[in-house]
Amino acid sequence: MNFHIVTFGCQMNKHDSERMAGLLARNGHTWTDDMDEADLVVFNTCTVRQHAEDRLIGNVAGLKRLKAVRPEMIIAVGGCVAQKEKERLLEKLPHVDVVFGTHNYVNLPQLVERAQVSTKPVCEVLDALDLPPNGAPSLREEKHHAWVPIVVGCNNFCTYCVVPHVRGREVSRPVEDLKNEVEKLVADGVVEVTLLGQNVNSYGRDLYGKPQFARLMSEINEVNGLERIRFTTSHPKDLSEETIQALAELEKVCEHLHLPVQAGSTRVLAGMNRRYAKEDYLRIVEKVYATLPEIALTTDIMVGFPDETEEDFKETLDVVERARFDYAFTFIYSPREGTPAAKMGDLVPHEVKADRFERLLKVQNRISLEKNAALVGRVIQAFVEGPSKRGNGTLTARTRTNKVINFSGGKELIHGMVNILIEEARTHFLMGRVVR
Ligand code: SF4
Q1: CA-closest residue to ligand 1 atom 8
Q2: Model pTM?
């Protein structure tokens, strides 16, 4: 069969989709970029925000007409929405053939085979992971880069978040397994890995000997041929001194830290069960900048948590001004069914949330531009990823600090390192020219 996978949500989902594609390819199926041509369409879903769920429903409903013309077409829905809402999903979308959860995507090829001979939808959603995912093949989107999940699940139970409910408790993969996987990836042409976890900083607590995240990075730093190590996401309460030192000392670990703050008010942070106060967060940021003055710091921020007041929101703006993030993923809070925060109601009116969101964006965009402008005139080493998304014949390269640089250059530069003189700064990217 020709198959196509549509992915919603976070990097963990992107990684899972690459594994699904690898498993399907190993079973003799072929990837197609054209969804209309596919015999099998897989949706890997996200339930963190209502918006992604609505888009999924719209997308799957849109395939109904295609399926009426080609009834042999198989539609499979997996990931977080399927894990949480399997019955409701089949009620809303009866033309779906396969429903599978977050813990059993490795069974996708077999579920598809069953669906081909079944008159009813095939549904398999497991409550927990039997074994951490390892060894499953992967069909990567980018030849040079691979996602490597080091810990799946989350033990933190932030009050607004559904992840622990759909991904389960933390399960870490042993250091040796991970090192072997990275070695294999490098043999396959990978030069950059991103170590993934909902909270990489609690890596290893469930393993024998409790190896810390910093130790894992130091082992992976030893892999010959690997050039860059990135990681995401770090919970501020668990960011250790050793991890900050590893960022500073291990030459392959890139100078970029994604450290979600979520809100600036200590009162709101307590309501979110984040287990740090505003000042704790700012102290960590200070320590990080003191150790790595050139690091790029990014974050996630939510506005409109159920009882957020104007004063609370101003605390968020204060953190943004003081932490000087290079970039912030900003969100408007929406209640997720089954979470403690949802029981508090959705108390901030939509227009207030929208106003705060705009004000936050304005401050953050100014700071992002200021930080990028400070790089003009510098020569920065960057890895050329490919043609730029702007589609104007330019190429895109990425710095160790995860900044995007667009520049003119020949295709022979793709997948190599170049030195670029930064000539112009925009809010979300840089422009420059290659220098020797
Ligand atoms: S740390 Fe909090 S926000 Fe992140 S996945 Fe876990 S519960 Fe959700």
Answers
A1: 161
A2: 0.91
- By C-alpha distance, which of 373, 421, 414 is closest to 395? 414
> Would you say domain 2-124 falls under CATH 3.40.50.2000?
no
pLDDT of residue 52: 83
- Cβ–ligand 1 distance for 156 under 6 Å, the answer yes
Query: What's the pLDDT at 306?
Result: 95
CATH superfamily, domain at 145-373? tm_1862 like domain (3.80.30.20)
Q: What pLDDT shows up at residue 427?
A: 98
Torsion, Cα of 286, 287, 291, 292 (10° steps): -50
Residue to mutate, 12, 161, 232, ligand 1, most ligand atoms under 8 Å from C-beta: 161
Which amino acid does the sequence have at 182? V
Tokens 């000392």 correspond to 249
CB 78 within 8 A of CB 101: yes
Domain 379-435 carries which CATH code? 2.40.50.140
Residues of the chain with confidence (pLDDT) below 50 = none
What's the gap in Å between 198 CA and the centre of ligand 1? Answer: 6
